[in-house]
Write a structure and sequence with these properties.
This protein is an alpha/beta fold. The protein has ten helices and ten strands. Helix content is 39%, strand content 14%.
């Protein structure tokens, strides 16, 4: 692989109870290490770890061999971790310290050193020869490039995901932000951090099976409403997609939590995610030619949808995709499927970010 300045990956979800995290498999890990070895700087743009399904200590014990291998490939280099909603505890303590210093405000490109005894410090200890930096909510990688996980978009997403519904309720009834909505990182944190705190507490104390089922609820509903099948499956899909979801969304909107949209097709998932990310960029005043994000697991722009990824002010959105395999999204399209795992964004000292795929086959997942 050619030498590049920065390699950006997101949504590895290392430690997933489902075994969907492909970077624990030999061949995908080998491809990832090739990327890390060829780059001067590596950025994990959120959800590097899956901390919503098992206690954090158990997750770290499980994935320690993978993190050590990554640390060997990145020795002497900077490794940036920009936590997302599934590994938010990596940055939680640092944000508390930052609030005490600032009086409540948070920077758009905060950089935090992992502290011994904290979760981020445990991760850094597994990569002792790398310079691990926690960036939150994002980082300016170049004067014209800003990168963040993108979970702030859940506040504006019109797809009725469980997390978005809870965020809408918190924003209206508990955040104290006001009708103008969020315009700073601390505003988004006021809406979303309570959700992440509860999710983390459940993962530390609840049975892992029940936590895993809760995390996959939105995915299960989407699969039921839009998946293939005949007979009973078709009837169930019709009842959910044409009756239950529109009725539920109408009730949610009537309660003042919307506007949410009952269209949960793949096309609307893409459009809604891009609209919501555009809202985040505008509200936070992110001045960049390129904004790179993850979170939605939908890589882009790809051939045929490039126009949708450019905001009205000219900013180009780029999504780094995912490194997990989800059957509900990945069908027989192969690498042309936007949810195909193993994507990397390569960034040089100048020129546009380049979205590439380094995984040409999906191996069996853990436990299969």
């Amino acid at each position: 692989m050619r030498r590049v300045t920065t390699a950006i990956m997101s949504d590895l979800h290392l430690g997933s109870a489902s075994g969907l995290d492909l970077a624990r498999r030999p061949e995908p890990l080998s491809r990832l290490l090739d990327v890390a070895s060829a780059a001067d700087r590596i950025v994990f743009l959120g959800d590097l770890l899956e901390l919503r399904e098992h206690p954090a200590a158990a997750v770290l014990d499980d994935i320690a061999p993978v993190l050590r291998r990554i640390g060997e490939a990145t020795a002497g280099k900077q490794v940036v971790v920009a936590p997302g909603n599934h590994d938010y505890p990596l940055v939680g303590p640092a944000l508390e310290r930052a609030r005490l210093v600032s009086g409540g405000g948070l920077p758009l490109d905060g950089l935090y050193r992992p502290e011994p005894g904290e979760l981020a410090g445990r991760v850094a200890a597994l990569m002792p020869d790398s310079e691990l930096v926690i960036a939150y909510p994002g980082i300016r990688l170049r004067d014209d490039v800003y990168a963040m996980h993108g979970h702030y978009l859940d506040v504006h997403l019109t797809v009725p995901r469980i997390e978005c519904l809870i965020a809408a309720a918190i924003e209206r009834y508990a955040s104290g932000i006001g009708p103008a909505g969020p315009t700073a990182p601390e505003h988004y944190e006021a809406i979303l951090s309570p959700i992440y705190s509860v999710a983390h507490a459940f993962a530390q104390n609840a049975r892992a099976g029940s936590v895993t089922r809760g995390n996959s609820l939105s995915r299960t509903v989407w699969s039921t409403a839009t998946g293939n099948g005949g007979g009973a499956a078709k009837l169930k899909r019709t009842l959910v997609g044409r009756a239950a979801i529109p009725t539920a969304v109408a009730a949610i909107n009537a309660a003042g939590l919307g506007p949410f949209n009952s269209d949960i097709s793949a096309q609307e998932l893409r459009r809604a995610g891009l609209r919501a990310m555009g809202d985040v960029v505008e509200r936070l005043g992110i001045d960049a030619d390129y904004v790179i994000f993850g979170h939605t697991h939908r890589a882009g722009p790809l051939e045929g949808d490039a126009d949708e990824w450019r905001l009205t002010d000219g900013t180009q959105l780029v999504n780094s995709g995912t490194w997990i395999h989800e059957d509900v999204f990945v069908d027989g399209d192969g690498q042309s499927n936007p949810y195909w795992p193993g994507r990397v964004v390569l960034l040089d000292e100048s020129g546009p970010p380049k979205l590439t795929t380094v995984l040409d086959a999906i191996p069996p997942t853990l436990g299969s």
